[in-house]
Each structure stands twice: as C-alpha cells, then as structure tokens.
Amino acid sequence: MTAPIVQLVTSRLHHADSYTLARFEATGGYEGLRKALSMTPAAVHDEIRAATLLGRGGAGFPAGVKWGFTPPGVWPRYLVVNGDESEPGTYKDRMLMERDPHQLIEGCLIACYAAGLSQCFLYVRGEMALAQTRVATALNEAYAAQYVGRNILGSNFSVDIVLHWGAGAYIVGEETALIESLEGNRGMPRLKPPYFPAAIGLYGKPTVVNNVETLSNLGGIIVRGSEDYKQYGSESSPGTRMFAVSGHVRRPGVYEVQHGVTTFRELLYDEQFCGGIRNGNALKAFIPGGGSSPWFFEEQLDLPLEARPVGGAGSMLGSGAIVVMDETTDAVKACLRVVRFYARESCGKCTPCREGTSWLETILQRIVDGHGRPADIDMLLDVGDNISPGPYPAASWESEGLAAVPFPPKQTTICPLGPSAVAPVVSALRRFRPEFEAKIRRRALGIPVRVEDSTHV
User: Fold this and answer.
1) Does residue 290 carry a pLDDT above 70?
2) What's the rounded Cα separation, in Å, for the pair 152 and 147?
3) What is the model's pTM?
C-alpha cells in the first residue's frame, strides 16, 4: 500500500502566487522565524537536531549535527546556501527557489539564528534566471518587511543575506568549489582535510553549507515541533523528501514523498505519482540519484527511498533525481550522454579526471559511431579503474553481484566528479555488455551503424 501523500515543503506550490510575500504570510509564513526568535538559539538548534533532518543535497548528513561542527569562539562564521543545482536530472531545488523563495529565506534566517552565523550567502546556479529573479524579489520584500536586516522583528538578531549568481559550472555544486567561486576564484574543489568548511571555509572562517531543500524544512519543523516532523517517514530518515523524476514515465515531475517509506516502484508506477512507464513499455533501467549514481534495474524497484538501503544495494539517492529508461533505450548512447556531460564539466584540476573522462567519452563515441574495437570494452574498464579503483573485471560480476560495483566509490581525484563518469560505464557494461559488443561486431563485419538502428535516449 502506498504511503499517504504528505506535503511539508510543497504545500504552497498549487497557488499561482506562491512566490509572493502576501501568499507566504497568508499560509503561515515566517511564523517559524517568530517562534524561533522567542526561543534561545541553543533551543532552536536542539529542536532541529532532535528532528534528525538529513541533508537533502546528496550526502544526507544531519543538519543539526553539521551546525555543531563549527569551532567555538571563532568569528565571524557564515551560512552558504548551495543553490547550484547542476546534477543531471535534478530540478527540485530550482522549483523551491522559483515558487516558494520566502520559505527558503525563512530557513536561512532560522539556521543563522540557531548556529550563530553572522551572514548568509545564497548561491544560485547561473542558468536559473527565473530562480534568481524570484529570490531577488523575495529578498527585497523580506528586507522591506524587516524579516531580514538589522534587529529582525524587533529583536537583537541581525543578519544579511547576499544573493550570488554562479557562472554555470557543475563542479561548483561541490561545497569547497562553491566557496572558491564565492571568493572570486575559479570553481575548483579544495583538499579535505584540512579544508572542511565547518572549520576553514569562506574567507578562511567557519562556514556551514546547506542545501535549498534542507533549509526549506526548518520553518515547518520549528512551528510543528520535531516530534510532529518525525511521525512522517521512517525512524532513521524522518520527514519527507522531494524527488525529480524524468525520462520515460507517463507523468515526469517533482514529487514530495515520505522519506524511507515510499518505494521506487510506488513512485514510478502509482497513479498518484508518475503513473507507470510511457506507452506501456517495460522498464530497462533507472538512475536513482542523479547522473553520478550507479544505475538500478527492475530488481531494485522495491527498495525504499532511503539512503542506507539504496547505498547497500550499490547506488545512492544523491541529489534526489530519478531518470527512467524504458526498453527502447540504447544503453550505449545513454552511457555516452552521461559521460559526455562529466567530461565537459571536469574542472581539470585532477589528472585522472581531466584525462580519463575525456578518454571515456572518446571511446564511447567511437563505439556509437560504428568504429569500435574489441579491445575498447576492456579499455573503458581500465580507464575507469584509474579514476575510481574497483573490482571491475567482468568475470567477477556474476559471482559478486552488486558488490562488484564499489559504493561509496573509491577515487583518485579530489572530488567525486571523476567517479561520476565511471558509474554509468560500469553500470551499462555490467548489464548491457551485449549491446556494446553488437556495435563493435558491426564494424568487424563491415556493417555501418545507422541512426535508425537504435532509439535515441
């Protein structure tokens, strides 16, 4: 039985004017901030920690615990909002910024109050023009209404929120690269340690980096309390989570579901959500957590949408993006499409990623174009092993099952971009190796590969 639909962060989105201050106030907006200001910062922090609000940006680390990592007595300290949503297939945070920006602003204020953060920097992806406009307008409204600025709502709490537009680099979704970009440098990741942002972050000061959806939950938690929040979802992953579903389903879109309770099957097939695969086709594969996550197949449909069981099965929920591929999909082309993205977005700082992702793209393009060679499959695995070491020999896959794809991935790079390009290669080869071999055999037999021979992704 499908878990009941609960809307904790998307309850206003059905209103045409959901992005305005008037609508936000009319639906209980900023009541969470008012209540928080009537409490001590420590009490607000304790309430969020008690709610076990897991980060919604990919890592799934509890927000309340993360706030506590800032070293005591070191000032100033900053809040950085990661609105650089750039993972392929992900657009849930974009929806929140475009259609309920005041909910995000309220969450920023509550986080700053609870964790003693003196200033907030709201970083929005460069291509999201409407999100930038909506957030900028909402900030102007919030300043005018004294929700942001000096002595907020007559209290002694003051904080500024600075809106910063990115330049559209995928790598800036990684928190240390985002901080580099905010400081005016080229977006490249920093080594961790020593640069854990909570200790050494923006301008060398303690910095909390939180995701848009994470912060959008704070106002509701403070108003309703942590115990009410924990009645939804599972014991280890309470509350709800938003998922952006794209690809070959009847109704793609963003859905808010109970965290750890709803399964992939329910989300993809239930009539109240995606309503099944398009045209009555069979499912071939799906990417469970954005383009960087290893692929899942029909046998994983009954896994709950929760980090621990998904990670145990060899993948991740990641950024909350599910990309569905039906039986008409050309697996080799799908693999190339994802790998090409990461090859183009590599910042070039790490040699294995800079060189390896380009080689993966080149080899896959050669296979798709009908010029593949028998040695190309082993070469793909060898290049992948140099970026993200793992037990990739095909002979081990049958006996080791999902364990043959290491997760979390090992990496020879500073950030996970390199391994992100390896995930689709290993996933596709492990399950659809005959499709690669068929394209390579065409070259050996002198048969040209025509566009109409396979379906575009």
Assistant:
1) yes
2) 5
3) 0.93
